[in-house]
Amino acid sequence: MTVVDPRPAGERPTAATLTLARRVINSARLDDAALRGFLHGLPGVDEVGAKARAAGLATRSIKTSSKALALDLAISMVDLTTLEGADTEGKVRALCAKALQPEHANTDCPRVAAVCVYNDLVPVALHALRGSDVKVAAVATAFPSGRASRAVKLTDTAEAIRAGAHEIDMVIDRGAFLAGRYLQVFEEIAAVAEACRADGARAHLKVILETGELVTLDNVRRASFLAMLAGADFVKTSTGKVPVAATLPVTLVMLEAVRDWHRQTGIRIGVKPAGGIRSAKDALKYLVTVAETAGPEWLTPDRFRFGASTLLNDLLMQRRKLAMGHYAGPDYVTID
Fold it and tell me: Is 236 one of the catalytic residues?
């Protein structure tokens, strides 16, 4: 499939922007002024146009012949998540059992990509998932607020990695970003990225932007580039703990950012919308947006994830409807 940049030439990254990006990446001395010059030199986002394009992509339909494949792909991209203060070891074990065999008594259903839990429950999840390819992700860096000292954030990250987490979902300090303290945010992400790769660790880093608090799509684009400059493996929309979580226009802008980053650097960064995606119908809209914006190379769990706790059940219900011709009863799927 050929992916064509739909934006006018004036909104695409210019040669000057690419030169500045390379200079910032290779600079021995970074400061707020250099980062501000780079981030505010990025092409502005046409909010009306982005919302209109997202709305247009949402009208695309996936026919029955392809829908089954799309549902299975979406299942394989789910980070099955429980991040509540009342989480217990039993709940995590049950969630892991569901991750390993999402569809009851049906072994041909794909497994999810990962189970996402708090640090202290990482060992429980690892034991329950032993011998499988399902990853264990841990939220860190004073999730969900991100309001803690760097030392606390790095300790939080190190504990998760020592416990065996394969992936770290960190949150940025939105207050620092909105105040223009870009170097502070950059250095914190870079330090966590380094911790994820220290002493032989190979944990993947997902950087949560909490886009519902960033106010504008321009800020979403800037925060995405800042995270990628600092070493993120994924950029993630939300913690799921604020009223406005993932939206299609926000995810579209983040997909454009990772696509442009790949064109500049040759490095592919993943995207993870999280929070508020509950229906299979919505998940398929996101898959269409991925294909049409970043390209088919991102249609893999290594490059795109859904952060969700309830989405999986609807994907399973729709999968069964395609196979059986009718919806299952309410007892067919587990209640998370």
Answer: yes
Q: Where are the domains of the chain?
A: 32-323
From the list 104, 79, 65, the residue with the least C-alpha distance to 204 is 79
Considering the candidates 272, 282, 285, 314, report the single residue annotated as catalytic. Answer: 272
Cα separation, 22 vs 179, in Å, equals 25
Residue 299 and residue 170: Cα distance in Å, rounded?
A: 23
Full-model pTM: 0.90
**Selected catalytic residue, list 79, 236, 285, 314:** 236
The CATH superfamily of 32-323 is Aldolase class I (3.20.20.70)
Spatial neighbors of 112 by CB under 8 A, at least 6 apart, are 75, 76, 77, 78, 79, 80, 99, 102, 134, 312
Length of the chain: 336
Q: List pLDDT tens digits, range 146-202.
A: 999 999 999 999 999 999 999 999 999 999 999 999 999 999 999 999 999 988 889
Residue closest to 286 by CA, chosen among 113, 146, 77, 103: 77
Annotated catalytic residue: which of 79, 156, 169, 233? 169
Provide the token pair at 10.
Answer: 């004036």
Report the distance separating Cα 189 and Cα 153, nearest Å.
Answer: 10
2: CB partners within 8 A, 6+ apart: none
DSSP per position, 237-264: ---S-SSS---HHHHHHHHHHHHHHHHH
Are the C-beta atoms of 242 and 214 separated by less than 8 Å?
Answer: no
